[in-house]
Amino acid sequence: MSGGHEQLLADCDDEQRLAITSDDAPLFVRAGAGSGKTRVLTRRVAWRIAEGSAAAGHTLVATFTRKAASELRQRLSSLGAGGPVTAGTLHAIALAELRRLALDRGRSLPVVLDRRQRLLERLAAEGALPVKGREGLAALVAEIDWAKARLVDPAGYAAAATRAERRSPLEPEVVAECFSVFELEKHRRGLLDFDDLLRRLAEEIAGDPDLAAAQRWRFRHFFLDELQDLSAAQLQLVEAWLGGRDDLFAVGDADQAIYGWGGALEEAFGELLTRYPQARVLDLQANYRSSPQIVSVAGALRGGREAIACGREGASPTLTAYPSAEEEATGVARAIAERRRHGLAARDCAVLARTNAQLRLLGEALEREEVPTRASLGAFLLDPEVAAALRTLRAAGSPEHLAVALGELAAPRRGRSPAVAQLVEIAGDYLAIDPLPSGGGLVTHLRQSLATDPGPGVGDGVDLLSFHRAKGLEWPVVFVTGLEEGLVPVAHARSAAAKAEEARLLYVALSRAERELHCSWAERRLLGGAERERHRSRLVEGPLAALEPLGTEPQGASAASRALAESRAHLGRGARRARSSKAPPRP
User: N or C: the chain end with fewer CB closer than 10 Å?
Assistant: First the structure.
């Protein structure tokens, strides 16, 4: 084994080493929060390239957010395995391949619809849809998103929605009618939406043996991140690329599967094992991200599956009851302001809520305390420098012209807006996957990134995100707010499956914290124009039991594991009294 090989394993534990070096194919890895899944994924790619069982130019690494894809490329580059490796989101890779195919065949390039709602709003205004109003159109978009991720067409929507017990303010027949009108209008205008990219490329591969051979020659070694988020449309494309081969590695965490929201397969691990019964499954159980105290609290929502806490000791997580939602927002904002006075950077904090609607009040409170928040990724389009840059980039018709324009943008210049750096980063992501880049292709990629991956913001500020948007991210200090019945779980989560998903969603939120975790809820909240009495979420009863003291002496992995098991023994003994305070927690 070469020294380079040894270096790839030097800082890995035994479970990680096995996942990196195993010769099994397919190989699926169940990796809990903080277990080093990105390390394992990138090291396995580098390992296989270094030992000659994979060629960099024929390797595809797919993840589910632009930010994650950018991080993957950076890590692969630092490991000496970057360059010709194709790494990106499946949507972005599919778009690049369809652009290449169109150029090869002399066809017009695909025109991508950046937001379904915009076209639906236009159709509603023209009277072509029986649905009107912001809430009705938002519900319609959600149902179309759900259907397309599952490869359900308008004719099959009503039956599929009934089988899945979909709860929507719109009748299934109304959704099916609107869905059909939407698809016909897209076809008339020659538009594709982002889920069409996946299906269209899969269908092109299935229907053209020459294209299938070319695609399978180019992509031979497949590595999938965030397996639990895999949708039917994404799996269809991956299997079209594989063409019956088994060179597939996938890593994910079933405890973070939020299929009801993102359209993922309900049991992605189970589905893949059904299709690939010869696959080996490995587990990563250590948590290096969070303190043992946070691992214990978040782990109470994992259904009894153990995690070994390997992080440094930290403060005990807190649960605070506030008299009102306004006081909750003020308390959280003041707690963050106090931490900033003690030297914590605003970007090291996150405030999470179950719904986006809750974030407005929290954002206003942070503003009153003069705590900066990070602008959403889409907000940088309003920056005058970015708007000017996009005009220049759009005019770049060749890869050479685009490279020159981007080089000028990337050159350091005093006083330049930080948003320009974000644009350059997204452009780098685009150049890494499109074999024939152009200014128009970059703009299309940018629109796709904003539509499917808003993610965290830019600049130095507190991240204000929903539980869903926090997936895959981490911060030293996290405030999880609004832990009330009707919000966590949401009121419409009535089935056992929906309630289980809400518990996984709360686990996602709690497990984002590295050093400090502060939870809160409000005894009264304004809902539907009236202030209503609220009750603490039943989902926090298990984590409350895990708030039992873990001791103050330093613990190794085995001691932390014993402490975790002891705290789990308290689960099921009934509700514990919360350690509550009307004052915000001190740093």
Answer: N
Clarify whether residues 419 and 488 are in a common domain: no
Residue 103 lies in a domain: no
Q: How far apart are CA 462 and CA 350, in angstroms?
A: 6
> Rounded distance, CA 275 to CA 133, Å?
43
pLDDT digits over 154-170, tens only?
999 999 988 887 878 88
Do 296 and 272 fall within a single domain? no
574 part of a folded domain: no
Q: What range does the domain containing 243 cover?
A: 3-97+196-284
The confidence score (pLDDT) of residue 552 equals 31
| Closest alpha carbon to 251 in 227, 222, 281 | 227
pLDDT of residue 378: 53
Whole-model pTM over 0.90: no
DSSP code string of 275-305: H-TT-EEEEE-EE-SS-HHHHHHHHTTSTT-
Counting the structural domains of the chain, the total is 4
Percent of the chain exceeding pLDDT 70 equals 84
Q: Are residues 300 and 230 in the same domain?
A: no
The reply to whether 582 falls in a domain is no
Q: What is the pLDDT of residues 489-548, one digit of tens each?
A: 877 667 777 788 888 889 999 999 999 999 999 999 987 777 889 999 999 888 887 765
Closest CA to 376 of 434, 422, 443: 422
Q: Are residues 227 and 280 in the same domain?
A: yes
Angstrom distances, CA of residue 583 to CA of 123, 128, 176, 358? 51, 54, 51, 21
